[in-house]
Amino acid sequence: MKFQVKVWRQKNRQDAGRFETYTVEDVIPEMSFLEMLDLLNEQLLKRDESPIEFDSDCREGICGTCGLVVDGMAHGPKRACTTCELRMRNFSEDKTIVVEPFRAHGFPVIKDLVVDREAFDRIIAAGGYTSVNTGSAPEANALLIPKDIAEKAMDSAACIGCGACVAACPNASASLFVSAKITQFSLLPQGAAERKRRAVRMVEQMDREGFGNCSNHAECEAACPKSISIENIAVMRREYMKGALAGA
Amino acid sequence: MSVIRIWQSTVGKKVVMAVSGIFLMLFLITHLAGNLTMFAPDDGALFNQYAHKLESMGVLLYVAEAGLLAIFLFHVVAAFQVYLGKKRARAGGYDRDASKGGPSKLTVASRSMIITGIVLLIFIPVHIWMFKFNAGQEFTYTEVGGEEVKNLYAVVVESFQNPWIAFGYTAVMLLLGLHLRHGFWSSLQSLGAMSPRWTPAIYAVGLIFALLLAGGFLLLPLYFFFFGEIPDAGMGGGL
After folding, report:
1. Can A3-111 and A118-245 be said to share one CATH topology?
2. CB contact under 8 A, A211 and B186
3. Closest Cα in chain A, distance from residue B108 (Å)
4. Contact assessment for residue A192 and residue B111, using Cβ atoms and an 8 Å cutoff
5. Is B104 on the interface with A (CB under 8 A)?
6. A89 vs B43: CA distance, rounded Å
7. Is B195 a residue whose pLDDT tops 90?
8. Domain A118-245: CATH class, spelled out
9. CB-based contact B89 A6, cutoff 8 Å
10. What is the pTM of this model?
11. Residue ranges per structural domain of chain A
12. Overall domain count for chain B
């Protein structure tokens, strides 16, 4: 297969950046989107051009490192899928594929398609943890968690922190990410103790990072490779208001 | 934590928008119910009487109007804050922009909230000037149940004989419908009053609500444009 790809190139944080169009040949349909970019980079290196920088790590959809906006959709057109798991068979050769970095004030571009997502780390550091005494593991049956609640917490914990929610949101809001973390902890007894101050601190840190306001478009849920529900955002709002009104 | 600090947060702004939005929706329901009295086959007697009852509430009416204005301003201020926050959060857009569909509720309605909102913001003062103050002219009076009351009905019917006003109102009401289509469900989601079991139902109810309200409101200008007759000032009685 042969594809035309229009890729965002940006030398560094200060560079204004521009699009470049390349032709990639010898693509096989089973290739992942990132393998197609690897192939393109090999072809660029052979021509002594600088390769396209992009993030990736596990390449099996579990680490949250990769993330591109492909044809105007975070992680590309396939739902519940990371960019690394996207296959070239999902694309038509007739249409130029547009590849852009996640765009948000909170995610500045470092180079080409690589963005700085440290804002998420700072949000986690603001409250996305439980302060518990360490020591020997407690007896397994000492802490009873009903199965349905454990499953709901797991649904929220499935968030891999890739930032696609921010990229897909028309407002560049980080609400889905932050709410998934807040919900996960609030459902479990270990996290419930600090739920009020956690919600307030994480929301305030999210705001400080310059992410936009959630306008309930729910596009984040559609873009999320782990299909995290916007119900989490509803939970975050309840948790925040309870925390804020309690003076946490 | 102070109310100001809550408002400053992104969550707080949406709560302000949602609570004020819900009050404004409740107001719209009562406004529509009042409007529909125009369809009573009594040449506007019931409607004029209703308007007169409201006006004779005196101080209470001023309090209600001030409250409504405050709620409206809360809604507008928070809306612009959300919009400016969005502009700051992503300066440049994407070269190509598409929705992934599925659970997404990204629609023309959700995307145009700021535009439909600004149209309503311009429309409302014009609307109040036209009908509450009769565009600066003296009202005529009619007799209902032995009382002299303002003939607001005549003002409305006469205004809607003008095709610009009738179709202008109709267009604005369609935009109001679009605003409510996203606003109804969004207000509940912003208050955290959502669960996956209820979301589809509430989203559907939002559509029905928007259709009913927009439909109800635009019935008046269209009806009076096509079938309206300016009532004789002396014929207003008989209730």
Report:
1. no
2. no
3. 10
4. no
5. yes
6. 68
7. no
8. mainly alpha
9. no
10. 0.94
11. 3-111, 118-245
12. 1
Residue B229: which pLDDT band, with cuts at 50, 70 and 90?
A: confident
Q: What is the pLDDT of residues A37-79, one digit of tens each?
A: 999 999 999 999 999 999 999 999 999 999 999 999 999 999 9
Q: Please indicate, yes or no, if residue B161 is contained in any of the structural domains.
A: yes
Residue B99 within any structural domain of the chain: no
Domain assignment present for residue B97? The answer is: no
Best residue in A103, A206, A215 for a mutation probing chain B (most B CBs within 10 Å) = A215
CATH architecture type of domain A3-111: Roll (3.10)
Binning pLDDT at 50, 70 and 90, where does residue B238 land?
A: very low
ipTM exceeding cut-off 0.90 for this assembly: yes
State the smallest CA–CA distance between residue B170 and chain A in angstroms. 27
Q: Which residues are CB-contacts of B113 (< 8 A; sequence separation ≥ 6)? A: A215, B79, B179, B182, B183
Q: In which residue are the tokens 């309503």 written?
A: B120
**Mean pLDDT over each residue of chain A, to the nearest integer:** 96
pLDDT tens column, A219-229: 999 999 999 99
For residue B131, the domain's CATH number is: 1.20.1300.10
% residues pLDDT > 90 (chain A)? 94
- Chain A environment of B195 (Cβ under 8 Å): 231, 234
The whole-number pLDDT of residue A132 equals 81
How many CA atoms, within 13 angstroms, populate the side-chain half-sphere of residue A7? 26
Show residues of chain A in contact with B198, CB under 8 Å: none
Give the number of C-alpha atoms closer than 13 A to the C-alpha of residue B92, restricted to the C-beta side: 13
**CA gap A163, A101 in Å, rounded:** 11
What are the tens digits of pLDDT across the range B47-66? Answer: 999 999 999 999 999 999 99
Closest CA to B94 of A8, A163, A21, A216: A8
Residue to substitute from A171, A209, A213, interface B, most B β-carbons within 10 A:
A213
Residue B95, in any domain of the structure: no
Provide, as residue numbers in chain B, all residues whose Cβ is less than 8 Å from the Cβ of A203.
Answer: 9-11
